[in-house]
Write the structure tokens for this entry.
Amino acid sequence: MRLACLFSGGKDSVYALHLAKYAGHEISCLVAMRPQNTESFLFHVPNIDWTKLQAESMGFPLLIVQTSGQKSQEMKDLKRVLSELKQKNKIEGVVTGAVFSTYQASRIQKICFELGLFCYNPLWQTSPASHWHELLVNGFEVILTSVAAQGLDNEWLGKKMDENAVHVLRSLEKKHGLSSIGEGGEFESFVVNAPLFAKKIYISNYHDEWKGLQGTRHILRAQLVDEHLRKKINPSQKASVKKIRVKPKKLVKKKRVKAKRAKHGRNSR
Amino acid sequence: MMIHSVLVVNCSRDNDLLSVREFVWPIQRSLPVPSKAIPLRAFTEKSLQSFDAVILSGCQLLDNDYLKYVKKISWLKNSERPVLGVCAGQQLVSLVYGGKVLDMKQPCVGVHSIVVRKNRAFLDGSLSTLNVYGLHSHTITLPTGFASAAYSSLNPNEVIFHATRPVAGVSFHPEVLNKGLFPSFLTWAEDRLHSGK
């Protein structure tokens, strides 16, 4: 089936996309909603513009849609976009990363029904322990880009999630009653590497902002890097990152040869 | 007879990873006994032989493919195994027992409240109302031999059960809200099998 993926760049939507692709569906495009209101009820806010790097790395077209972030308007904007995608891209359904939120899931289900689109929620009702386990076992590299809960201090902002971090989150869940997968807005995440990524995302500059218990990591500069080259980068030398952007010499040389042949009127084949 | 294993039938059109994860795994995780899942198209009398009970799952809101299988599973009416139909599964139970499936003017999507009747079958004995998660665009008529255990403003037959057999159906998704209904159903079905009614 030809699907559009409601995409935020966080662990849930990237994993839902992964599962849809793995199940053999065709991904027509990713749809990222950018709410002006940071208190959006439905959509993920921090660093939404950096989804362009994720989309590029996975090779999927990305549509970033501006929305007011007001309850009713958000739904209208989403419906309009999905309607256009149905007409232009011939999508037959939508895949979302909804896990437990009946508020979010039911609203998207209604829109899809009205438009005659299937609505897939492959993470639906997955337990937090299974969810994190599946992500880590499948090689997802996830960082936290915002935190807003007791027990999640500045050490958690930008933290790369691993088994230990998940274990601590699970104990905070028991202690403070927070959701260890961030269902109640306790945190937002951003995927920097995943099985569908051809290149990993390297964040070279960021700014942390705190408002009371709420911390947000704003990504200021990031780029795609090859995994093997990434290992050579010294994090303290940001300038060295730029070198990664240089095209490989062999490629440049081939292009020069092609140009030379073309100049001399020869078949460049 | 004790129920030691359950067969969960995926009523989705495509028995792919997405539908299994969304409609089948949540049911399996809610069950207190081991279970196995199979697609509706593979559901035969033989496939149920090694299981003590069957649960027919729900499916996508736009998916009506399961309605094609009513004749194929008509043998279920004569089976002695406990049966619970969830959403699309409830519609199949109704059709197999001679009821009808009707289109709703508006689909039922999201959380709504149902009122529990006096004869509550396997529903929690302490609650008069229950918040449930619905995802369907059809309702059913009550088949002969069945009673309704709960209703709402949208649907008079939110929960149905057979007068004598361990057969029931719910129009909503207990795997989303009210996961405890699955073990309650199994206990109720065991009691019915013991008492012979």
In short: Chain B has one domain: 6-195. The helical segments of chain B are 17-30, 45-48, 88-96, 181-195. DSSP finds four helices and nine strands in chain B. The domain at 6-195 of chain B is CATH 3.40.50.880 (Rossmann fold).
